[in-house]
Design brief:
alpha/beta; 9 helices; about 40% helix
Length: about 280
């Protein structure tokens, strides 16, 4: 089992890789990529039952990135798990590449095309129902954005998840509090998220999505036999890990200048060296 320190190291390596491919492609939703990267690293490197050697294993856990515009974070994690071969990420944004600006099933390890916000939980709910109908043990994990919570289809899926007692379904909200047009509470208020989802009949936890120990503790404390779907509200930081991007709505989508890129890489490399020294 991958330990917390190893996961922290892997997440920082993924963070560095993310900056590299956004810099090469000259495009990417980097702020939200960075805020959910710890969560994706934890899921793929410790929590989920998945393997690049058997990407279509019928008993594999399923993952849906509902906030599909943050696909760059998923790409780097899939590469770190061996789903995407060496050199492929460098083709992002280039003609003929299999890598799009949103997840597509052309890429090994991606279960479903996403990007139209609000659809991911409905798809994940259907997957979880299928597992129940077939008496299969696999779980479904869905990562949503907090700005995405204004989409009505999410709440139809929330009702269905509770109605069908989908305790094999885990939804995670990347609660970085910023969307493309500003603070979520100024654009479309979504608080009190916890009480809203509890009212829908979900088992709700809150966690520090910037802290690997909190992420693992929350994910590994889920009761998969309580007849309730699970929601984890992950309190995160937009642009996490790059000082000049943190908590800045303008970095929802953007490409660093060469000077900014070098600063970001230096910050991340410093943390990588520090963690490696501690291992």
């Amino acid at each position: 089992m991958t330990g917390i320190k190893e996961l922290e190291l892997q997440s920082e390596k993924n963070r560095k890789r993310l900056l590299e491919i956004v810099n090469i492609a000259k495009a990417g939703h980097i702020g939200g990529d960075l805020s959910c990267l710890n969560i994706l690293t934890a899921l793929y490197h410790r929590v989920m039952n998945v393997s690049a050697d058997k990407p279509k294993d019928p008993d594999r856990d399923r993952f849906v990135l509902s906030k599909g515009h943050c696909v760059e974070s998923l790409y780097v994690v899939l590469e770190s798990k061996g789903y995407i071969g060496e050199g492929v990420l460098e083709t992002l944004g280039k003609y003929g590449s299999i890598l799009s600006g949103h997840p597509t099933i052309e890429v090994s390890g991606i279960e479903v095309n996403t990007g139209a916000l609000g659809h991911g939980l409905s798809i994940g709910t259907g997957m979880a129902i299928a597992a129940k109908m077939d008496s299969k043990p696999w779980k479904t994990f869905v990562v949503m954005g907090d700005g995405e919570q204004g989409e009505g289809s999410i709440y139809e899926a929330a009702m269905a998840g509770s109605n069908y007692e989908l305790d094999n379904l885990v939804a995670i909200i990347d609660r970085n509090r910023l969307q493309i047009s500003g603070n979520t509470e100024d654009v479309m208020k979504i608080e009190d998220i916890r009480e809203r989802w509890k009212a829908f009949g979900w088992d709700v936890q809150e966690m520090n999505g910037d802290d690997m120990k909190s992420i693992i503790s929350s994910l590994e404390s889920i009761d998969y036999n309580n007849k309730k779907p699970h929601l984890l509200i992950a309190h995160t930081t937009k642009g996490k890990g790059v000082s000049f991007m943190e908590n800045k709505a303008e970095w929802h989508h953007g490409v660093p200048s060469q000077e900014q890129y070098e600063q970001a890489i230096a910050e991340i490399s410093c943390r990588i060296s520090k963690i490696e020294a501690e291992l």
